[in-house]
């Protein structure tokens, strides 16, 4: 019965979308006629034809939501990073107010997605590969191969799909200027390169993670020109994303500067206990008061240029104290 209802909803959504499309083609307003029609986006699943000016966008991961908001698009619906939680807190409330929660990443409610009658869906294969065919029946679906490390390339795909390539160029220029400003504040490229910087994440229900070179946050460190400790070269798990260690090995992530965070409750993640231990207190960064606690939703879960702008602000503030 549930399958039949879902199928009926999808069919109804498709029929409604076709009706809306037909109505739109009869509108002779200058703005509509100049932005009407479709264009083709190259995706991991091949070429996908999308509206030139999509109006009913649904996004199914945090990077896609960041991209949309960065480009001035408020989606109709989006997934959240964790069950029972709102959209990531670093996003401006006025930008997320009114967006419908359509489930958790990798577990979207197909009925809710279909019910919004989207004209474009943005997601990635890492989260929704198994749902591509079903999503494509609801609306043109643009997928990137993965999320995280290739965020800049993914952003360009999102911008193309949203019809915002011109806006994307401005975003990139602003980001380049911002990273250059932080580098200058640190004393220039040579001084920045001499500051070995590590990122550690305590995790509820999992091992502690020391980040390598192929993580979203690692690209920001690189763009500012900061050095990385040797352990970053050894962090090759998850395709170079990170290294998992026990709480007793957290000092492997020591460096001139350490940014650390927790996914989940700090007590359950092990952070509270670890930062009180002699092992932590004897770390070089801690002794030099260069260990900074940062928000997980921003530094790790938030992936995109809106997140990057806020991270760079914090990074400059912490490193120039």
- How many helices? The count is 19
Helix share, percent: 40-55%
Amino-to-carboxy terminus distance: 62 Å
Structural classification? alpha/beta
Q: Give a count of the beta strands, DSSP E runs of length 2 or more.
A: 13
What coarse outline follows from CA principal-axis ratios? Answer: globular
- Strand content is 15-25%
Major sheet strand order: 6-5-4-3-7-8
Low-confidence region ranges: 1-34
Could you tell me the mean pLDDT? Answer: 91
Based on CA atoms alone, the radius of gyration comes out at 22 Å
Largest sheet: 6 strands, mixed
Explain the overall architecture.
Helix content is 48%, strand content 19%. It is of the alpha/beta class and 321 residues long. The strands form three sheets. It has a six-stranded mixed β-sheet. The longest helix is centred in the first third of the chain and has 24 residues, at 2-25.
